[in-house]
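Duplicate of #3305? Posting structure anyway:
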C-alpha cells in the first residue's frame, strides 16, 4: 500500500438501504431532488471492517453481492503532494485507477475504550453523502479529525 493511500480493502455489499430509504423526496435531504442515493452496508474481506456508505446510484449503481475495492487517500497526486482542488486535464492521478471518487472531510472519530480488541469508527461527509467505517482501531489510527479524504472505488 502506498503512502498516498491510508486504507484499502475489498468489500462485499451485504445490504442496500438497511434502514429504509434515507434520501427520498419527503425526507430531510435535497439530494433526493438532485440524484438517487443508496446507502450500502458492506464488510471488508481482509481487515474485517464494516461500512455504511451513501452512493450516488444514478452514476454508480450498487447491488447486493457486488464486490469492490475501496481506498481512502489524502491526495490524488501520484507523487504524494497535497491536492490543490483544481482539475488538470491530461495529468495522471490516483483517480485513473478507480471508477467512482468522492472528496470529503472526516468529522468524527470514536472508539469503544475497552483496550483489548479496541474497535473504532470514523465518519466522513462527502458533501452530505456519509460514510461510517468501523473495525479494529489499528486500521483507522492514522486518521485525524477534520482531515480531508478522497474515497475511491472500483468494482471487481
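Output from current build:
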Amino acid at each position: 500500500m502506498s503512502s498516498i493511500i491510508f486504507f484499502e480493502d475489498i468489500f462485499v455489499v451485504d445490504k442496500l438501504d438497511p434502514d429504509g430509504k434515507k434520501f427520498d423526496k419527503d425526507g430531510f435531504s435535497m439530494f433526493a431532488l438532485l440524484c438517487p442515493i443508496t446507502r450500502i452496508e458492506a464488510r471488508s474481506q481482509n481487515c474485517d471492517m464494516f461500512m455504511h456508505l451513501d452512493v450516488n446510484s444514478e452514476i454508480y449503481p450498487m447491488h447486493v453481492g457486488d464486490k469492490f475495492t475501496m481506498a481512502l487517500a489524502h491526495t490524488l497526486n501520484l507523487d504524494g503532494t497535497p491536492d490543490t482542488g483544481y482539475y488538470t486535464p491530461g495529468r495522471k492521478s490516483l483517480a485513473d485507477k478507480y471508477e467512482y471518487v468522492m472528496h470529503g472531510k472526516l468529522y468524527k472519530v470514536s472508539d469503544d475504550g475497552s483496550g483489548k480488541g479496541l474497535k473504532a469508527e470514523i465518519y466522513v461527509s462527502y458533501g452530505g453523502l456519509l460514510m461510517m467505517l468501523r473495525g479494529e482501531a489499528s486500521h483507522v489510527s492514522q486518521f485525524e479529525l477534520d482531515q480531508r479524504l478522497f474515497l475511491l472505488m472500483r468494482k471487481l
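Confirmed duplicate; merging threads. The longest strand covers residues 5-16. Residues 6 and 95 are 15 Å apart (CA to CA).
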